[in-house]
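Why predict the complex rather than its parts? Because the way molecules touch one another can change local conformation, and only a joint prediction can capture that. The input here totals 418 residues.
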Amino acid sequence: MNYLQTHNRSSFARRPRVWIATIFVILVIAFTQFFAPHFLPAIFTTIARPFWRAEFSLSSGSLRSPETLLNQNEELKRELADMAIRLETTQSISNENSELKTLLKRPITTVPPASTSSSLVTTSLSSSTSTTLLPISDSLDLASLKPSPYILGAVLKRPPLAPYDELIIDLGQNDDVVVGDLVYASGNVLLGRVSDVLGQTSKVTLLSSPGETYDVLISNGNNTTSISSTGSKTIPAIAHGLGGGQFSVEVPRDVIASAGDIVLIPSINNKTIGVVGSVVTDPAQPFETILFTSLTNIYELRWVLVDTNTNTAPNPTVTTRVITTKNVKK
Amino acid sequence: MSKNKIIRIVIDIILFVAVINGWWPLAIPLAILGAWYWPHFVEIIVAGVAYDALFGMIPGTGWHGWIGTIISVVLYTVILLIKKTVRR
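Output of the joint prediction:
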């Protein structure tokens, strides 16, 4: 019995040229990437960037009415003025404190560093390349304000949809960003490191990216009952990135850590990277697993600070952040 | 323009938007659908390369930055072989 042929069998077997063309294209892509690693990313990023910017602008409220924006502008100006007054008050109290200490012949100490809430000092709204001063630091002396390498960048893409647990920010070579620059969230929370730089965008590999490992210090100084068996309040360990702002650390079971302990990157400045969420202990195992999360919700990140001085000065003593807002395009 | 081509263009546009935004849960089913429906849906490979170019291809990360390309080539090849076998 004969059957009618329902499909044309000539699709692929009779067209080896298609196979050859496909393989050729893949080889061309591989060679291009090998000899010019930024060629393809630059092309596709140039195409995608306007869409990303548009999406960011929409999510930032660019479609609000002019009245709403003007009202918001006025409100922000008022807040700035309040902040400036508050800073002046703080400055006068600081001076008074110093004078009193001098009278009492006590050593003058500076304000503790690493303030987690940066306060806005001043801004110039008239210029498109205005600067915003954010003191974070050990000295509130306005005379000591100096430019710092922190640049404010907008987060164009973030996890979880970006598959490589990375951020894409709108700063690139044009903004003096280089591979290796550290990236922070507000509050001086270390997020990750710039891993690839294109003309106007950069890829930031998060500390929590799978496969990334770091030396960390688990500080249970806030919890006086949690002290390791060695008596130390700071536990050195190696953190493994789990993706999505999650980390794990394996430590001996004798080490006592608890939820709420702060996790730091060991350095002179001891940058905070997370807080312990839970401790998983199995009585049959000699180790326990400490799970901690980033202090910032990376799924809601909209702005980051890039330290462009990372590669030139390993441990800069920053007294004031000067953020150039020339890169903030709405 | 035939209805078939219009559908393909619509699928391509949706695939483009999905890749640009990193919506891989949408891009993969669309790519599979296209590769199954049309004989030579090379857009799947373009989408894979574009995806890696946008979000991966970080120097020093090795093949990890090529997952999109690898998946697209594997999907394209596997679907073609399956089609060839099933439609024989």
